[in-house]
Amino acid sequence: MAFQQSDNMHKFSKVLGSAKNIIVVAGAGLSAASGIPTFRGKGGMWRKYDAISLATPEAFKENPSLVWQFYNYRRESALKVKPNAAHAAIARFSLPSIRQSIAPDSKFTLITQNVDGLSPLALEDALSKSTDAADKAAQKSVIEMHGRLFDVQCTECNHVEFNRSSPICKGLEGTEQLVEKNAMDPEIPFSSLPRCSSCGVLARPGVVWFGESIPHLEVIEDIVAEADLCIVVGTSSTVQPAASFADEVQEQGGKVAVFNLERSEGDSNADFLFIGPCEDLLPKALGLEN
């Protein structure tokens, strides 16, 4: 299927305006402009490690000290940045009071693979500026399918709590700075790593690691099954199950629009392809440029 040229916003706007069940599937590229490392491609190394290899239950079992240092680095990086214009555009579009004039009587869900919390922060900001009671429903429009970086989960009792403390614990304080110094990895004892506030045993980051099941996947699949427009933002579409969502929408007769900084696997099947910074393209494409 031939795709539309990236400057052809008019045809996309018409499709957007007639869509009734809209989903955005977002990846690391959505947060790149905020300064969040993607850990994919050329930026895929953390210290001397393949970052993806650290995002597994096996890696945590073998070396919880190293894995917690990696996630402490990610936490501290995320705490220093703010949502960018792409996050803000998606958040504003999720508000019924705004979306009604762009895509009348439509439903909207953001399915994000990101764990950095920037999309929820952008939504909080958008809601704080709204006086329309109907917009409160948008609080349920963000699904963080790979978990949350600031959730801390017990390894035994499964207690989970949201924690944006910096540092998360004394033992990890300052370890994020070792990246720039190219220092050796300190061996932090279990007793100095984050502990469960409920039972006191070792805790883990509350994210979904490779090899683990996606929570609420059935809910996500139901939303995708109803979608007639899938907007893919900042993802190479290689990680399942999110990589298959766009294909599913097309198979059921819907349209797919891809927003990426560069070409990626499978984007030639898109109905619309927009290449460039999503923080520049998305506000315009969603009718929110001004």
Nearest-integer average pLDDT: 91
Structural class: alpha/beta
| Strand content bin | 15-25%
For the report, how would you describe the main beta sheet? 6 strands, parallel
**CA(first)-CA(last) distance:** 32 Å
**Total helical segments:** 12
- Rounded to an integer in angstroms, the radius of gyration calculated over CA atoms is 20 Å
**How is the quaternary structure best described?**
single chain
Low-confidence stretches: 1-6
Strand order of the largest sheet: 5-4-1-9-10-11
Binding site for NAD(+): 27-46, 113-116, 234-236, 260-262, 278
EC number: 2.3.1.-
Pfam families: SIR2
Family: Belongs to the sirtuin family. Class III subfamily. Belongs to the sirtuin family. Class I subfamily.
Task: Characterize the structure shown.
By secondary structure, this protein is α/β, with parallel strands linked by helices. The protein is 32% helix and 17% strand. It has helices at residues 9-18, 29-32, 51-54, 57-62, 64-79, 85-94, 96-99, 118-128, 178-181, 217-226, 245-251, 278-285; strands at 21-26, 45-46, 49-50, 107-112, 142-144, 147-154, 160-162, 203-207, 229-233, 255-260, 272-275. The strands form 3 sheets. It has a 6-stranded parallel beta sheet, sandwiched between helices. Strands 7-6-8 form a 3-stranded antiparallel beta sheet, covered by helices on one side. Strands 2-3 form a two-stranded antiparallel sheet. Helix 8 (118-128) links the parallel strand 4 (107-112) and strand 5. Helix 6 packs parallel to helix 12 (278-285). It is globular. The protein starts with 8 loop residues before the first helix and ends in a 5-residue tail after the last helix. Residues 1-6 have low confidence and may be disordered.
